[in-house]
Amino acid sequence: MSFAYTFATDSLVRWQIFRNFAAKNVQQTMSIRFRLLTFLLCLTVIGSTAQRRSTRTTQRKATPQASQTTQSLKAGVTKELAAERSRIISHVNYDLTFNIPASQKQVVTGTAVITFLLSELTDVVLDFQGTFSGACIINGKQRTVTYQKEHIVLPMKQLKEGLNTVALTFTSANSALNRHDDYLYTLFVPDHARSCFPCFDQPDLRALFTTKLNVPDGWKTMTSDSENPLPTYLYSFVAGRFQEKKSQRDGRLMRALFLETDPKKTAQLDHIFDEAGNALRWMETYTGLKCPFKEYGMVILPGYQFGGMEHPGAIQMNDRRLLLGENPSQEEQLRRTELIAHETAHLWFGDMVSLKWFEDVWTKEVFANFMAAKITRRQFTKVDHDLNFIKTYQARALAIDRTEGTHPIAQSLTNQNEAAMLYDNIIYDKAPVMMRMLEQMMGAKSMQAGLQKYLRNYYFKNASWDDLIETLDREAPTVGIRQMSEVWVKQKGMPTIQSVYRDGKLVVSQHDPYGRGLCWRQKFDIRIINDLGRSRTITVDMQQPTMSFDIGPAPSYIIPNYNGSGYGRFTLDDVYTRKLPQRLIVTRDDLQRYALLLTLHDNYLMGLIPASYFGELYRDMMKEKNPLIMQTCVDHMFKIAFDLTPRERQTLEQCMMDLLSENRSDECRRTIIRKMSRHATAPEVVQQIYDLWKNHNDRLFDEHDYMEMAYRLAIMRPEEWQQIIVKEREYLSNDLLRQEFDYVSRACTPNGNAQRQLFNELLKPENRKQEPWALHVIELLNADVREPQSNAYIPSSLASLEYLQQTSDIFFTSDWLQALLSGHKSEEASRQVEQFLKKNPNLRPQLRNKILEAAWPLMNIRR
Ligand SMILES: [Zn+2]
């Protein structure tokens, strides 16, 4: 136990003492709580009038003494406001009561007793977007305060230096409550706690929470209340008619709330607890710190907007990612382990040490993913994990980094109400690639030692990326970590790395596509193969823009980024590029074959490799055994087919189905059928899917697979669409599936007016509560075969982006754009995007980037 650790623990103990001290104060307030409630609830009824009136009167009085902060008050939480508050406020406690009615139509009301230490006397601003009467009790006295621009202003003359207590009642806004019939769950990341209750909604004002939930009879609840202070974005509660399962792992209570009724699925909970237990043990060993949260609670939610969210004690998980079908693919099992490991790793990276300000959100995500990769490695011993790492992170990061919509890993944020725009594959997927390079450069042991120090230094505190870099740099001072961070983290894009043969030399050069002359330091291998099949590997430690190696006579093949450890676009001379696809079938090693697949695909996208490369992919698939490679291979084959004319595409679809008789593995069959279930256009292939669906007895496919087939078949056979939908519905085994199916299958209607109406409905937030379902509808409305009429959704979607972003959760806007555009390939669609961008030069840069990113395949299609 280090000094820093002891000190940090002492500081927490002090906080607990403060809470107990505050509790006395609170109890006093509590005793008048009943009176207060009756009094304040009366006011809430006439809330809006009272609010307006009180605003006017108090403003008049308060203005002369108002601090600079309150004078320049803006909606949201600005960086200045956050900095000022974290300077003067500390030791925050929220004692919260929520009254949750059974009916969604009735509002959720609550009482908050907030205590905090104030080090300097000034107006204090609380964030709140719900309804509040203006009446509150400040330090035991009834007061009326100002409410302006989403803030409650507590005037300095009613406060004191030291401990302050504020008690008030309020009505929560519904926006982050995720209310459904019979249950609700709060999801406050990044800045939605303030929509539910008055608070200091910034990550570096950590607080202790105590929650009381008044719920209908028979409802179960779970909260993230803990003995450790948490940022508001990590606070959560859920309540509803959930099922519950409890168990113990290593003496820790594991608890799950769920709605799933399929016994085959709920039987998986024991396995899920095991996986969570494994992840906890692994993290405790790696970090040298015990998990500081007593209970491991999770809530499994249908139609959940994310994969998971790490509220300690009440981790939310997406049911489809967690509860798998009867015969899950290796990929599905891997992704489930990664998800559990990701959320568990957050208990240390994110919950124990949190970000200071949301522009550093990627620092918690990078560690969650980086640790998840290590934990998963231990559990799947037969999987090639280097390959899985490249597939999971590198391939997805490249997909954004090659577009004009890319941006640096580190982004800046002036107001927290824009924080949602920071999230995408660059922070989730490029950051782990960078972190792995950092680990390779400093060594795994010294990285681990650095991270242990970091966690102890900032134990239940907040830290920025620069704080981390400083800790790691001290651990390995000769590695040049800061310089690496400057390029990889703070600058956008990736290098083009060209390998050419010149007069006995292999010349490897890096180019910065944005002309800034940057050099992305990294190590990768290049394989040289000569006529006689003799080969050698050159390891390039790229520290300068150009490096050359003596290799003698011209080789037959040059294979860049041989083991996939490099990151960028790897190109060759034309003559070597043309020969490169021949290497796919003869590359035996899975990792090397996968790395080659990515290089080939990138060169295909750049127009350097012709569509006939489909043949090499086909030959590889005939023999391919690795399910991770199969999926990528099939994706790349389909991309080539998609780019060709409708007739050529149909031929290639049939070729892909022919593969089923060449490669008879389950994984091959599952991968190809799943792809075709969503995309088939060839009448023969549609018929094959139809027959499979009609029989409904292939155990390789789960209920969602059959639902997917039904959607596609209904779209492809408009004359039969209703029968298909009715028939599929009869097969569904439970209400949750029927709800989802009824919602999504509306998109299959062949009626143009009904389609348009459905699209317009989805623009309204109340019609897209289950975001993944809504995105599925958008995807089906924009199915490839629905051009050109589906082109009409492009301009209206783009014009609504700002609104969509304001009324949805963090990934929704990007995902909407993907669902909207991925099926389009017409020049008209491409023109619509271009025109929108031209006509809206003042669009917020992050939104522009999201459009450029999602539209890249459409605008770069090889017509
Ligand atoms: Zn995460």
Number of helices: 33
Q: How big is the Rg?
A: 28 Å
List low-confidence stretches: 1-8, 29-66
Indicate the proportion of strand residues.
Answer: 15-25%
Bound molecules: zinc ion
Which sequence of strands runs across the widest sheet? 5-4-8-2-1-11
Number of DSSP E strands: 27
Largest sheet: 6 strands, mixed
Q: How much helical structure, as a percent, in the residues? A: 40-55%
Q: Indicate the structural class.
A: alpha+beta
C-alpha termini separation:
63 Å
Shape: globular
Q: Would you tell me the overall average pLDDT?
A: 91
List the helices and strands and how they pair.
Layout: H1 3-31, H2 33-45, H3 47-62, H4 68-71, H5 79-88, E1 89-99, E2 109-118, E3 124-127, E4 135-138, E5 141-144, E6 146-148, E7 151-154, E8 162-171, E9 179-180, E10 183-185, H6 193-196, E11 207-214, E12 220-223, E13 237-240, E14 243-249, E15 252-258, H7 263-266, H8 269-287, E16 296-301, E17 308-309, E18 315-318, H9 319-322, H10 330-346, E19 354-355, H11 361-379, H12 385-401, H13 425-442, H14 444-457, E20 462-463, H15 465-475, H16 481-488, E21 496-502, E22 505-511, E23 522-529, E24 535-542, E25 546-550, E26 557-559, E27 569-572, H17 574-579, H18 583-586, H19 590-605, H20 614-623, H21 627-643, H22 646-662, H23 666-679, H24 683-695, H25 703-716, H26 721-731, H27 735-744, H28 752-762, H29 771-781, H30 793-806, H31 812-821, H32 827-839, H33 845-859
Parallel strand pairs: 1-11, 15-16, 16-18, 19-20, 21-27
Antiparallel strand pairs: 1-2, 2-8, 3-7, 4-5, 4-8, 6-7, 9-10, 10-13, 12-13, 14-15, 17-18, 21-22, 22-25, 23-24, 23-26
Helix pairs in contact: 8-10, 10-11, 11-13, 12-13, 12-19, 13-14, 14-15, 19-21, 20-21, 20-22, 21-22, 21-23, 22-23, 23-25, 24-25, 25-26, 29-31, 30-31, 30-32, 31-33, 32-33
This protein binds zinc ion.
